[in-house]
Known about the structure:
Blueprint: H1 4-9, E1 15-17, H2 26-34, E2 39-42, H3 49-62, E3 67-73, H4 82-91, E4 96-101, H5 108-113, E5 117-122, H6 125-134, E6 138-142, H7 157-167, E7 172-175, H8 181-189, E8 195-197, H9 199-202, H10 211-219, E9 225-228, E10 236-239, H11 242-251, H12 263-266, H13 268-277, H14 300-333
Parallel strand pairs: 1-8, 2-3, 3-4, 4-5, 5-6, 6-7, 7-8
Antiparallel strand pairs: 9-10
Helix pairs in contact: 2-3, 3-4, 8-14
Amino acid sequence: MRTRLTEMLGIEHPIVQGGMQWVGLAELAAAVSNAGGLGILTALTQPTPEALDKEIKRCREMTDKPFGVNLTILPTIKPVPYEEYARVIIESGIKIVETAGRNPEPFLPPYKAAGITVIHKCTSIRHSLKAERIGVDIVSVDGFECAGHPGEDDITNFILLPLAARKLSIPFIASGGFGDGKGLAAALALGAEGINMGTRFMATKEAPIHDKVKQAMVEANELDTALIFRSLRNTARVFKNGIAEQVLEIESRPGETQFEDIRELVQGARGREVYTRGELDHGIWSAGMVVGLIDDVPTCEELLRRIVEEAEQIIAERLSAIGAVSGRDIHASA
């Protein structure tokens, strides 16, 4: 299954493991890359730029396949030395960077000078077109279904992807709601060059999170996520747990919500402890609507193999058969 994405990134399958805070460690990124996809380390999961350099070296010890690094630029409680993280990425020889959050334009000149391919995550067509204009190589189009920050427009991928295919010249991948071969086949049919998965990779053997978190996703359905921070216009999709419900209750109160009202509940350290300790109601943790499609915890190799096999079967058998029937009908009517 060759697409512009696989050719540009030097990978076997058009499947990317997007950056995930506290989850994008070497174990997972290397497993995805070894399985033929693109694994991605999350820079800000590492406490310092120096720690990121060590994590990149650790990942290289686990795989000789291409992998990338995500650097997300978002408002944070504590200042983050983004430029130093970018410097480490460049000096380490990484050739693929996933950017997200704010406009990545200030970082593009040094990335380009280093021969880095930049994938930028966008939740709207207008932002995708802006990314193309400033020189991004690939856009990751994130629909309303996605985990993390889906933007404020609430547009699903069945609208975003055909629009992206119509308006963009650069390649794009589909993100949000993808977890099986049906989704991959659909994304390709809608014009994407591949898919980006985050939540689905959390429920794999190699994901460095507690088994209770993985089992919660297996048992969840498509209704088990919540949109928080809507009142702050910084919407985030998270797993619907006790903490998320407390945040929603505070946001629903009369008057304007202040971040200070919810700060203690949504601290990143609490979310990290969910992954390490398996206490599902200790903090908020990102999860997409795709949890409704998750019913097991395979290895990354097993997951990618069956996604690609299912997509290829749909394309070769179901879609071609429909096309053959339609062709016969047209011929008969003529």
